[in-house]
Amino acid sequence: MFELIKLDEFFKLILCCPICKGKLKISQDGCCCEDCEMFYPAIGKSYDFSIRRPEYCLSSQFKTWKKIQDGFESLSFRSQNQNELSYYLDQIDSVKEIYQEKFNISGTILDVGGEQGRLKHFLDLQNPKNQYCCIDPFLKIIQQETEIQSDFISAYPCLKDPVNFVCGIAERLPFQSKTFDYVHMRSVLDHFSDPYIAIKESYRILKPEGKLLIGLSVTGGKSSLKNISKLSRLHKKLRDQGLWKTTKRVIHESLKVFSEQKGENDHMFHWQYDDLVDMVKSAGLSIEKIHWQKPPYDHCVYLCCKR
Description:
The chain has a single domain (about 55-225, about 260-305), classed as Rossmann fold. About 35% of the residues lie in helices and about 20% in strands. The chain has ten helices and twelve strands. The radius of gyration is 19 Å and the shape is globular.
């Protein structure tokens, strides 16, 4: 079931307990922290660093996050319209300038909230010797996309091979301090339960002079979005992408719209540009480069931040 994921020895050697950052004793069944004795089970050839608290210990904020993210995960795979090669190729084309022209992500890389590891497509084009690992809280997200959706593999052929993957959250990264050259966060900062702690965790695992790349849809700054309403986003899509592409996307997202009509939402935060910049700086990072995407994605900004 999990042959699509792995964890190379290099990454096993820099693992630590996500709670206390203690040393792990690794066995065939999983990892056990030598300090707090927390146990993390093996999932095929990798590990599940999720922290399963008793239900009565869950805060209302965490319950909200879990409900939102569980819904987001299930909605991601309900539409069969997504199994179209053109859909995935459009996704690749939309960020090609980011990863092939504007930013050079290299070295030892942690892709936070990286889903199936799509970033690896661009990293392999640049330098197949990059050491890449993906962390995501949803284990099924790799299997459901790569095994069910044949067009997905056609668009991302590098994902035919197992990807370095661990299950876990951005706020509690299971890696030792100062071990990564790059941390990548694209379209995930609005899903975290505690984005500030997630940024501080990224800071902790970065080597001196290491870099964090954040890509996010925002309002304010040079963003083409004046507010976060669904109506303004629909108007922008119609203007930039035309009726046909917009209609396909609306159909694909119809279940999300339905859930939001019931008072639900698949984002914990809606970011203002100035708030994003302030948070990064308050976490101790300096902003090395700012890039706004071209239309129709000119509401998305990328910040390259240095430790």
